[in-house]
Amino acid sequence: MSIPEKEHLTSAAQTEESEDESEVLEESPCGRWQKRKEQMNQGNVPGIESAFLAMDTEEGVEVVWNEVQFKDKKIFKQHEESIITMFDKLLLLEHPNIVKFHKYWLDILENSARVVFITEYMSSGSLKQFLKKTKKNHKTMNAKTLKRWCTQILSALSYLHSCDAPIIHGNLTCDTIFIQHNGLIKIGSVWHRIFANAFAETLPIPSLSQEEEKNLHFFPPEFGSKYDNPAFDIFSFGICALEMAMLEIQGNEDCRISKDAIMQACRSLEDSLMMEFILKCLSSDPQQRPTAHDLLFHRVLFEVHSLKLLAAHSFLNNQNSVPDNVVEEMTKPKDPNAVGAEICHRGSQVIQWRYSNVPTLELDKFIEDVRNGIYPLMNFATPQPPHLARSFLHPLEGTDNVRVPTPDPIEMETRKIVQIQCTLESNAESSRLHLTLLLKMEDKLHRQLTCDVLPSDNSTDLAAELVHYGFINEDDCEKLANFLEEVINRQQFNGTSHSYVLTTMH
């Protein structure tokens, strides 16, 4: 056989293998998510026996299809309420430095059950992989990059720990931190500790592999006890920061990295402030460890943000009121040598800024980086987790008449609705209906909302809640309530799932 023939066969075999991996094994009930044959490594997460690469057919991006298996249906029924509560809370997590939790559903069979949930796919790999490549190329970690990454990780931890009740990650390592091509850091496996606590008595915890045993140094001295609070994650973050600074903590190849090896790595840091910063995180007493929010004010990370960064955040926070190409439009007609701003000081020369000092493309890239979460305003504006609205969660059994205290209203919606598309889906196993609203706003942007509707819910309360949480304009409340009432009445009469459209509200 000639060499070209061998190469042709090899290429054909690779193509066939690639096509085999992209084979669709299963679809989500809504048809949006398609499970593929290629399996993913999700680490030592209790109960997750399989995770697959999947496709989001609406957005055209790859995601991860995770499965929690319950071989005994009775055990699943015992935990069904806590499962729904837990996943509803995860769905509401929204932070640029946390791997996105997209969707979940329950698949209940005759004798078994499973929970399927869809998460964001991080294609660029883990922080551990990046650090290994950096060390292999005989490079060192840039101090500015290290501080930016620490800020992003602490931003995510501060957000999780601010939840009510606090969400403890419990498995923060360089393997569960991911880096994107643009330098954005995201932490994954947020559900790890929630799973471990909720199903410790019913789901077998898988045995540790040799590679996973090497990660035990990320866990604090209280690991394995009932002591469980945000200080657990702070210790893990300290080890992550140390590994980022050193690229690797040296230890024996076949055992856990010792405390002495960790202390030796800390003492070898050239930056004394960074060493102090990390040692605070690694205190053996959980009470002595600072919070994630406090660490953001440590002098290693704290800085006065530039006016440029503040302006970019202000621009993005009000982007609905300005066109997308505002930067280009504002600078296009200007003379590059024209003065855009001046800083005048008494007794000193006037400082002038010309349009040529900040090219348009550079501004566009900077704004995009800020939008993606690479430069958060964490020193004084920590994002707060959302409150859980009653109607937009899956209600628990026996809570139909229980009203949850309404949180303070958020910023109100000023845009009007020009079209509504509404879909009601019935649930064979309960009396709840699944409502999906697709709203077309007057600025041609769309907003999609989903929730479960109980028989005790009424259209007026649902519409009022949408106004309260800033999803629709107050002027649209009555018309939307009448439309929802008509849709619900039609569905109850027909008994099947239908889609309805209301146009030209204004």
Shape: globular
Strand order of the largest sheet: 1-2-3-4-6-5
Largest sheet: 6 strands, antiparallel
Question: Uncertain regions: pLDDT < 50 for 5+ in a row?
Answer: 387-409
Distance between the termini: 74 Å
What's the average pLDDT? 77
Q: Could you explain the architecture of this structure?
A:
The protein has 15 helices and 14 strands. It is of the alpha+beta class. The strands form 4 sheets. It has a 6-stranded antiparallel beta sheet with strand order 1-2-3-4-6-5. A 4-stranded antiparallel beta sheet has the order 13-12-11-14, covered by helices on one side. Strand 1 and strand 2 form a beta hairpin. Helix 4 packs antiparallel against helix 7, helix 7 packs antiparallel against helix 9 and helix 11 crosses helix 13. About 5% of the residues have low confidence.
Describe what is shown at a glance.
The protein is α+β, with helices and mostly antiparallel strands and 506 residues long. It contains 15 helices and 14 strands.
Give structural attributes.
506 residues, alpha+beta, 6-stranded antiparallel sheet, 4-stranded antiparallel sheet, 15 helices, 14 strands
Outline the secondary-structure elements.
Blueprint: H1 3-21, E1 24-27, E2 33-39, E3 48-56, E4 61-70, H2 73-91, E5 101-108, E6 113-120, H3 127-136, H4 143-161, E7 177-179, E8 185-187, H5 192-198, H6 210-213, H7 231-246, H8 259-267, H9 272-281, H10 292-295, H11 307-317, H12 326-331, E9 339-343, E10 351-354, H13 360-371, E11 417-426, E12 433-441, E13 446-453, H14 459-468, H15 477-494, E14 498-503
Antiparallel strand pairs: 1-2, 2-3, 3-4, 4-6, 5-6, 7-8, 9-10, 11-12, 11-14, 12-13
Helix pairs in contact: 4-7, 7-9, 11-13, 14-15
